[in-house]
Amino acid sequence: MLTVENLRARYGRIEVLHGIDLTVNSGEIVTVVGANGAGKTTLLRCLSGIQPITDGRVVFRGETYVTTPAHKRLRHGLAHSPEGRQIFTNLSVEENLRLGAFLYDDDRVARDMDEAFALFPMLREKRNLAAGGLSGGQQQMLAIARALMGRPACLLLDEPSMGLAPLLVRQIFDVVTGLKALGVTVLLVEQNAFGALKVADRGYVMETGRIAMEGPAEALIADPRIREAYLGI
Amino acid sequence: MDALMQFVFSGVTVGAVYALVALGFTIIYNASDVVNFAQGEFVMLGGMITVFAHLAGLPLPLAALGAILATAALGVALNRLAIEPARGAPVVSVIIITIGASILIRGAAQLIFDKQLHGLPAFSGDDPIRVMGATILPQSLWVIGGALAVFVGLWAFFTRTLTGKAVLATSNNRTAAQLVGINTGWVMTLAFGLSAAIGALAGVLVTPITLVSYDVGVGLALKGFAAAMLGGMGNPKGALAGGILLGLFEALTAGYVSSHYKEAVAFIVILGVLFAMPQGLFGRAGTERV
Ligand SMILES: Nc1ncnc2c1ncn2[C@@H]1O[C@H](COP(=O)(O)OP(=O)(O)OP(=O)(O)O)[C@@H](O)[C@H]1O
Ligand SMILES: [Mg+2]
Question: In this structure, are residues A65 and A49 in contact, taking their beta carbons and an 8 Å threshold?
Answer without folding.
Answer: yes
